[in-house]
Amino acid sequence: MAGATPQLIKELRELTGAGMMDCKNALNETGGDIEKAVQALREAGLGKAAKKAGNVAAEGLIAIEINNNNTKAVILELNSQTDFVAKNENFINLTKEITAHALNSNISDAEALNASTIAGQEFQTYLAEKIATIGENLVARKLETIEGSVVNGYVHVTGRTGVILAAKCDEAAKEKTTALLRNIAMHASAMKPTVISYKDLDPAFVESENRAIRAEIEAENDELRRLGKPQKKIPDFVSKSQLTEEAIANAKAKFEEELKAQGKPEKIWANIIPGQIERFITDNTQLDTRFALLSQAYVMNDKQTVEQAIAEVDASIEITSYIRFELGEGIEKKEEDFAAEVAKQMGK
């Protein structure tokens, strides 16, 4: 793979805010791999986390279909070449037809959808006829299905993001769970968690982010010191998955030493230390609050986490599946336009 090129340097600078020579060196060291270069800069304290500008904004719509008893849901990304067509009534109706077909035919993914028969036609023939009517290339790029004791979902008014969730719960809690899942889907649409629980985060990702976040804060503190401003606290950890019993015990011992040094009577330590431990956990789990749904502050009530909001409704509720689609997510940014991307996927 090639190293630094003017185009790659420009893109990396836009993504990270790092200097030109730093970007050039990172690209040369990683053979021109943008993602690796971003991480290398972050771990060196030279760049921020990549902005979302790295993905093209594909046009089209996200659509969902849920069965009558809220036990099964389908989510679809149907792409078009222009936003104008995505707002067309024929296109909107097409997304509804496809999601209903997938739900009723037990279709689980885009590959199965494209191999299916709809309205007595092969799906590709059916879609080709719609393309002729609508006047643009169309691609059913992504589709997923979930099932559970209760499912629900939400599509943002723009049609550019959508979420479906499944949960298990006691029979008596199903109605409450259905309403709750819609609210949590709205939360996830806005807050973009990638996993349900911190336990689902990849350990290698956690370790990599730990190094990168520490380096970012250290770089910020260098600037704060120069300006004579208070420095930020550098966390030891970034996820609850790292907070072993030993780590908590070490933190508690440190707090006890500090209280002793301050001359605080030992009899009041029990009133102080639990709050310090709680703050320690909060300070050392910032990755969870960014990526793990249950750890995020709930948008409907930011005084509690999503996990706490669920427990408040009913202790039997447990989220078992979570899928979020964002229009165009995962399509690489290239010099070619989206029409060319669609044509490529159509095999033309």
Automatic annotation (TrEMBL):
One of its GO terms (molecular function) is translation elongation factor activity. Residues 73-232, 235-329 form the Translation elongation factor EFTs/EF1B dimerisation domain. InterPro entries: EF-Ts_dimer_sf (IPR036402), Transl_elong_EFTs/EF1B (IPR001816), Transl_elong_EFTs/EF1B_dimer (IPR014039), Transl_elong_Ts_CS (IPR018101), UBA-like_sf (IPR009060). It comes from the Bacteria. Pfam families: EF_TS (PF00889). Gene3D superfamilies: DNA helicase RuvA subunit, C-terminal domain, Elongation factor Ts, dimerisation domain. The keyword Cytoplasm applies. Keywords: Cytoplasm, Elongation factor, Protein biosynthesis. Residues 82-85 are annotated as: Involved in Mg(2+) ion dislocation from EF-Tu. It is found in: Cytoplasm. Belongs to the EF-Ts family. Associates with the EF-Tu.GDP complex and induces the exchange of GDP to GTP. It remains bound to the aminoacyl-tRNA.EF-Tu.GTP complex up to the GTP hydrolysis stage on the ribosome. This is Elongation factor Ts. The gene is tsf.
